[in-house]
């Protein structure tokens, strides 16, 4: 069987799939992937929406005879491949792919932890408790232990006690190891020719392989295909760094008490030590949260993004003052949106006594379990020791190759240290080990070139890399128009929100609702929603319901959905239900981002223009992702409106326009109305 036998004009899919349209770019991309796999090469390929890129790499991967890892960024794409694309190849093309779907440990039910939890079940609410009988019934019947089989709320707290957490796993010493769902999933992956994972699991494995001899999560593989490769740099940055959080301290204290539930001789001592650990952790992380809000440059948050290289050692702008933090599990910084602030001596210095107390509490917990013979107890001691070492590492600011910062996310506070240049890490950890890799996405090329992406992931010019850009089958000149209304205030102007709301009101009247209104901040989203509360359509707001339920409601009747950048990718609403995408501002990364600031400094130190080489291409690709929500099929048509005048008044706006699909540019709502009437 060949590529043409499956994907060609007279191939199996063309013959066996009603309504199938042969796509020239799909076959060409498949040939490029086949070459990379066959000749052990690297390939970077942008494939526009509608190209059919998943089949374009699945078919050559299946025919290659090599062990291939396919890694994606989003759950949506993973499930599409597993539930739709692989069965399609088997049923319509006769191409049976020996495949396995491997997820992170937290997705699997742990038989051992589940049995112990059942002895003393505790829940955060009556609603959680009501689901417990259904979980028990499912656990007795499931063959995979995969949480996705059972419809649990995203924030179901008891799952933390039931999942196959790596920190609590006993490994081969567990009495249930042979029937463990993680063990069985890995066994299936070891036998498969194609293994489907996500970027997080791939890099978790890569870090283990390259830092702990003999420890690995994925089976040995010959080649890797990264879909949604635009997300690689961010995920790699996370995994090549260190992170200490209030959650980890809380979890260690809780697990320590549970580990001695059947040891009355230790229970009192452990409760004393973990009680002190919880108090020390809460005091320290509350102090970090309070210091984050008192940074001298906190007034920068909320302004329109700008960029200016920072002097070496100067912290990037931070965020506004936060209300006193109420602890790791309580209301806190998340209520005001995620926040990052560079760590500095000024921030950490006043907290030295609190950090010393936390350090001592961790050592006290470690000592309790230091001589334990039982595996479960010894694991608690190791975790305490590791947490202590990592806390010291993330708060030691002497390493210039790393960015140290504090982050308020969800209900927790995180201290992190990540590489300034993840490219070097990728070269050492991945490219020197794997001779075949494919990187593909609908958004890799900025201004028609792949240089920015290659630089971000360490594929320097000296690497012999195949490149390809496939625009996709859509006729953007006919199907879409880009609207940038003249006369709007600068995004930093106090008058911007009112003017933007007025423009949105006029635009949604053109399309009869059926619109996404995407903001670059939670504040902007809420302000527009409040200003447009009287629109005569169903109004939906990110966060009011789970994402899937919001999209279901959006599809059911003419609606206006207000959201932030979480809806800029991984969202697919084909047809008339989505006819308008409004983007309030150019999506520059916040100037408060410590990683962006450090990378900007590194480029500036080399005499390069960090704004044009880093900030602009990153924002242009993000805008391209937002644009990509609109046209999903050849029959779709609609408008993308950007309410940021800088797109047409600033010189760098040309770089954005050169990155977007070639749709006609309209400069007024009236022009958009005429285009819509004649489209």
From TrEMBL:
Residues 294-330 are annotated as: Disordered. The keyword ATP-binding applies. SMART domains: HELICc2 (SM00491). Pfam families: DEAD, Helicase_C_2. Residues 320-330 have a biased composition (Low complexity). InterPro entries: ATP-dep_Helicase_C, DEAD/DEAH_box_helicase_dom, DinG/Rad3-like, Helic_SF1/SF2_ATP-bd_DinG/Rad3, P-loop_NTPase. Signal peptide: none annotated. The keyword Disulfide bond does not apply. It comes from the Bacteria. Keywords: ATP-binding, Hydrolase, Nucleotide-binding. Residues 12-284 form the Helicase ATP-binding domain. One of its GO terms (molecular function) is ATP binding. One of its GO terms (biological process) is DNA repair. Coiled coil: none annotated. Belongs to the helicase family. DinG subfamily. This is Helicase ATP-binding domain-containing protein. The lineage of its organism: Bacteria, Pseudomonadati, Myxococcota, Myxococcia, Myxococcales.
């Amino acid at each position: 069987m060949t590529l043409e036998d499956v994907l060609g004009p007279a191939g199996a899919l063309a013959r066996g799939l009603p309504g199938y349209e042969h796509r020239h770019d799909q076959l060409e991309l498949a040939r490029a992937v086949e070459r990379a796999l066959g000749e052990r090469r690297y390939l970077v390929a942008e494939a526009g929406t509608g190209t059919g890129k998943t089949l374009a790499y699945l078919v050559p991967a299946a025919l290659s005879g090599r062990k291939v890892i396919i890694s994606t960024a989003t759950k949506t794409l993973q499930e599409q491949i597993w539930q739709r694309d692989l069965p399609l190849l088997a049923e319509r093309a006769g191409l049976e792919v020996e495949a396995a779907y491997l997820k992170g440990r937290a997705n699997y039910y742990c038989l051992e932890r589940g049995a112990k939890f059942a002895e003393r079940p505790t829940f955060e609410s009556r609603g959680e408790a009501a689901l417990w009988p259904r979980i028990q019934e499912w656990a007795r019947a499931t063959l995979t232990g995969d949480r996705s089989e059972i419809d649990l709320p995203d924030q179901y707290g008891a799952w933390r006690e039931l999942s196959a957490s790596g920190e609590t796993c006993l490994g081969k010493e567990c009495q249930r190891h042979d029937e463990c769902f993680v063990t069985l999933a890995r066994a299936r992956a070891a036998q498969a020719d194609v293994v489907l994972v996500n970027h997080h699991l791939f890099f978790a494995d890569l870090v283990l392989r390259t830092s702990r001899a003999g420890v690995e999560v994925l089976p040995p593989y010959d080649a890797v295909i990264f879909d949604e490769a635009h997300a690689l740099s961010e995920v790699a940055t996370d995994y090549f760094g260190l992170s200490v959080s209030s959650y980890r301290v809380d979890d260690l204290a809780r697990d320590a008490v549970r580990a001695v539930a059947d040891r009355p001789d230790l229970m009192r001592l452990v409760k004393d030590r973990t009680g002190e650990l919880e108090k020390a952790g809460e005091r320290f992380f509350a102090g970090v949260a309070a210091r984050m809000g008192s940074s001298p440059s906190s007034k920068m948050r909320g302004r329109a993004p700008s960029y200016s290289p920072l002097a070496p050692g100067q912290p990037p702008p931070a965020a506004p003052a936060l209300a006193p933090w109420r602890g790791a599990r309580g209301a806190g910084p998340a209520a005001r949106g995620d926040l990052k602030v560079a760590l500095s001596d000024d921030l950490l210095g006043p907290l030295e006594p609190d950090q010393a107390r936390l350090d001592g509490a961790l050592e006290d917990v470690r000592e309790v379990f230091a001589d334990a013979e039982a595996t479960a107890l010894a694991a608690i001691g190791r975790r305490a020791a590791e947490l202590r070492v990592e806390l010291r590492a993330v708060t030691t600011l002497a390493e210039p190759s790393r960015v140290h910062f504090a982050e308020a996310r969800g209900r927790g506070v995180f201290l992190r240290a990540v590489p300034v240049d993840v490219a070097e890490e990728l070269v050492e950890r991945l490219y020197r080990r794997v001779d075949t890799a494919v990187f593909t996405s609908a958004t890799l090329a900025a201004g028609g070139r792949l240089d920015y992406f290659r630089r971000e992931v360490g594929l320097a010019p000296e690497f012999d890399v195949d490149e390809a850009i496939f625009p996709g089958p859509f006729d953007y000149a006919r199907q879409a128009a880009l609207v940038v209304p003249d006369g709007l205030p600068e995004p930093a102007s106090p008058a911007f929100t009112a003017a933007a709301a007025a423009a949105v009101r006029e635009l949604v009247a053109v399309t009869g609702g059926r619109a996404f209104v995407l903001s670059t901040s939670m504040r902007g989203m809420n302000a527009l929603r409040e200003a447009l509360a009287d629109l005569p359509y169903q109004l939906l707001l990110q966060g009011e319901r789970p994402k899937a339920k919001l999209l279901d409601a959006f599809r059911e009747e003419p609606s206006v959905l207000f959201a932030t950048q979480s809806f800029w990718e991984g969202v697919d609403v084909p047809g008339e239900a989505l006819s308008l995408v409004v983007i309030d501002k150019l999506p520059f990364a916040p100037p408060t981002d410590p990683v962006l600031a450090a990378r900007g400094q590194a480029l500036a130190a080399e005499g390069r223009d960090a704004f044009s080489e880093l900030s602009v291409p990153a924002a242009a690709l993000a805008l391209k992702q937002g644009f990509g929500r609109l046209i999903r099929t050849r029959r779709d048509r609609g408008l993308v409106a950007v309410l940021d005048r800088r797109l047409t008044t600033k010189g760098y706006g040309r770089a954005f326009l050169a990155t977007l699909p070639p749709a006609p540019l309209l400069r007024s709502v009236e022009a958009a109305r005429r285009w819509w009437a004649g489209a």
